[in-house]
Amino acid sequence: MPGGAADGTFLRVKVLFDCPVPVLLAHGGAQIQIEQTKAGLESAGVEVEFLRWWDQTQRGDLIHYFGTASNSYLKLARTAGKPVVMTNLFSETCNRSNARLTRQGWLIQAALKTPVARQVKNQLNWCAYNNATHNIVGLEREKYVLETVYRVPPERISVVPLGIPDKFLQAGAGRREAPHLIYTGTIYPVKSSVELARLARAAEVPILFVGKPYHPDDSYWLRFKELIDHRWVKYQPHLQSEDEIIALLQSAKGFVLMSTYENWSLSAHEAIACGLPLLVQDQPWSRECFGKQVRYFKTIGYSAENVARLKQFYADAPGLSAPTIKLHSWSGVARQVQDIYRQVLSRGAD
Q1: Are 340 and 86 within 8 A, CB to CB?
Q2: What is the pTM assigned to this prediction?
Q3: Are the CB atoms for 190 and 261 separated by under 8 Å?
Q4: What pLDDT, in 10s, does the model give residues 283-315?
Q5: Which of 330, 323, 329 is nearest to 268 (CA)?
């Protein structure tokens, strides 16, 4: 194995990061995860570069791929003797029922046995998770997806939580004197931003939305803009400054999120670090992260029950506390990733 040390640091090991979607096309949680993992590894002494597809002279001991690499990519890496660690976010899939995931697994295994599937096997993403040297996910629920749906052996899966910046970890609770709840995140359909804004107006509960769309001409964003009334639906463009975001969180009464699905909500964990109680959707990801320590929407969108739950949460929020869960630093996350690299390099590309 290339240069390991007894104290867990790496020596003379270079990791190449790769990702299939440019962040100029889709900013968000995956971008943060990549950037912060890279920074955490570098602070621990691990040499990390973004893979330069045009550079034949670039060298690296291991590839860390954020997303699902193609089977041809994985085959080439294996031939070159380079292990590939894949990190995936199974946001939608991990929130399906156990019965549906089991059926999905049966269907995939049955399909793989057909003559057509055998001919196009290298084009099927289903096989990539087994072809990768190792898989990293953020939730036990996502590990369950890999094992149940894609039949990945458990020893080739690691669960590594996502972190939050040190400033959030050190922030603590604020005065929470502002007369509104807060939502932080991208304004787009998966986050149900329009639906939450409509619910705020129906319930007459003020919510401050902090975020930006993927594109200023996006039709969903334009629908959201029409709902901004500065009374029940307040809006603050996305802030780059951590200090400003922390100040907004610390001043709010509580945090609210009504996504169609999630896997590990960075914004929700940042809100917890700032002392806020949560109202989120009731799904496997949120139950695993928060258990009974938060309030839940039972459905997405407008309903009389959701109106009542939002009103009640707003009324109760001043007396509610943030969940008492473990929050992780990105340097701690990097240490866990580093240990995985060490194990993978000891095994080789296979």
Answers
A1: no
A2: 0.90
A3: yes
A4: 999 999 999 999 999 898 889 999 999 999 999
A5: 323
